[in-house]
Amino acid sequence: MAEIVSAVTRVTDIMGEIASASDEQSRGIDQVGLAVAEMDRVTQQNAALVEESAAAAAALEEQASRLTEAVAVFRIQQQQQQQRETSAVVKNVTPATPRKMAVADSGENWETF
């Protein structure tokens, strides 16, 4: 009878260990599920950010194209620029000298504080 009691005790211990291991595995699987859900959320968020970045890049490209067209009006061809430089007349300009002005002071503007 003692052998049966000891065998039942061992079986009970083994069943407890199996239950404990199953519980641990269940918690681990739950954590893996949460991690996968979080990775999915972050992946979707990154995809949205990539879409926004692509749209911003396209808008920037469009604006750069329009700016290039606007600035093209102000470009001078090299040949025209050389003609202007050779035909430009250099003027000798003498700087104006400051003149001293006479100040009439009658003393009427002074006040006592």
Structural key phrases:
2 helices, single chain, 113 residues, 72% helix, 0% strand, mainly alpha, rod-shaped
Distance between the ends: 123 Å
Q: Kindly give the count of domains.
A: 1
Q: How many strands in all?
A: 0
Number of helical runs? 2
What best-fitting shape do the alpha-carbon axes yield? Answer: rod-shaped
Helix-and-strand structural type: mainly alpha
Low-pLDDT ranges: none
- Rg calculated over all Cα atoms: 45 Å
* Overall residue-averaged pLDDT value: 83
Name the beta content range.
Answer: under 5%
Please give the share of residues in helix: over 70%
Instruction: Encode the helix/strand succession as letters.
Output: HH
Largest sheet: none
Structural notes for this entry:
By secondary structure, the protein is mainly α. 72% of the residues lie in helices and 0% in strands. The protein contains 2 helices and no strands. The protein is rod-shaped. The mean pLDDT is 83. InterPro entries: MCP_chemotaxis, MCPsignal_dom. One of its GO terms (molecular function) is transmembrane signaling receptor activity.
Question: Which helices and strands, and how do they pair?
Answer:
Layout: H1 2-72, H2 78-87
